[in-house]
Amino acid sequence: LGETIYPMKEDFIMVHLQYSCSHCCILMSSGKRWVCHQCRSFYICDKCYSAEQQLDDRERHPSNSRDTHKLHPVDIVGVPEETKDRDDILESEFFDTRQAFLSLCQGNHYQYDTLRRAKHSSMMVLYHLHNPTAPAFVTTCNVCSHDIETGQGWRCEICPDFDVCNGCYQKGAVNHPHKLTNHPSVADRDAQNKEARQMRVQQLRKMLDLLVHASTCRSGSCQYPNCRKVKGLFRHGMQCKTRASGGCALCKKMWYMLQLHARACRDSGCSVPRCRDLKEHLRRLQQQSDSRRRAAVNEMMRQRAAEVATT
Q: For FRET with 45, which of 83, 108, 166, 226 sits at 20 to 30 Å CA-CA?
């Protein structure tokens, strides 16, 4: 992680969730921390405190002063022993890449240049994250060109982009050859979104668990559901001459599963095929994206500085 974020360290704010020892720099999560009330932000762990007590008075804290500061013990409490994240996996196509998120913000005019806009934009971003099947963009009436509120419009199931509001539909101002169906209400859509999201999360977990199992299974008659199918995908991937780039549907399916696993995997010794390669590929893509972003920001700042200098 340190190697990954080192080129971007100027763009990050480091937050320590626990106190770190001023001597050995480890995070103190148990025992006691020894605090100096005279010095600002000076804490040491039990091990370093024991080592300091064996030093001469002139070598103890503070080392650059003749004075001797007394260290006071403080019990470390409230640190959970289990830190595994048990929250559901939230998947959304708008957060897979920076460009997809940028398109979402541009299409809905989400901005962060003021506190008020940042609050609204953050609220809407969380809404799209928790409601992945909800419409991402505002629907516009094809007759009067006004925005259509949720559950207050009619849609053509055949044409890809034909919606009308209730007002135009009731006035009879719609001249369309196909049948129009009413937009679902907020309650109905929320219920559908919740059920679809739970089902999608369950399917995703089962698929990733199956992928990990199949990569380590050596049994020829394994009873794990669909284990043989995934092993067959592995064998096909090694023998296929068409490949995913050539349009092979089985190869595309296998690579989709491997990419999903690589994004969520945190095991450095993972046995899933190509997991390490995909992690490295994703890391390089992220670094390239960050480099382009920093270059764009630097160019923008340079242009602003030039404008200020000329005025």
A: 83
**Strand ranges of the sheet holding 163-165, from the earlier edge strand across to the other edge:** 163-165, 153-156, 180-182
Q: Total domain count for the chain?
A: 3
pLDDT value of residue 110? 92
Backbone angles phi, psi at 143, to 5 degrees: -100, -55
Whether the per-residue pLDDT at 186 is higher than 60: the answer is: no
The structure tokens listed for 184 are: 């679902």
Within this chain, do residues 248 and 173 fall inside the same structural domain, yes or no? Answer: no
Task: Note whether 159 and 178 are within 8 A (CB).
Answer: yes
Q: Are residues 103 and 58 in the same domain?
A: no
Tell me if 311 is assigned to some domain: no
Is residue 182 in a domain? yes
Q: Are residues 9 and 52 in the same domain?
A: yes
Instruction: Find the domain containing 119 and state its range.
Output: 98-188
Distance in angstroms (rounded) separating the CA atoms of residues 293 and 98: 10
pLDDT of residue 192: 61
User: Position 95: which residue type?
Assistant: F
**Cβ atoms of residues 121 and 110 within 8 Å:** yes
Give me the chain's average pLDDT, please: 82
Give the span between the Cα atoms of 199 and 64, in whole angstroms.
Answer: 63
State the Cα–Cα distance between residues 43 and 20, nearest whole angstrom: 7
Q: Look at residue 111 in the predicted model and tell me its pLDDT.
A: 92
The amino acid present at 160, given as its one-letter code, is P
Q: Do 168 and 209 have their domain in common?
A: no
Indicate whether this model's pTM tops 0.70.
Answer: no
Comparing 72-86, 100-114, 141-155, the range with the smallest average pLDDT is 141-155
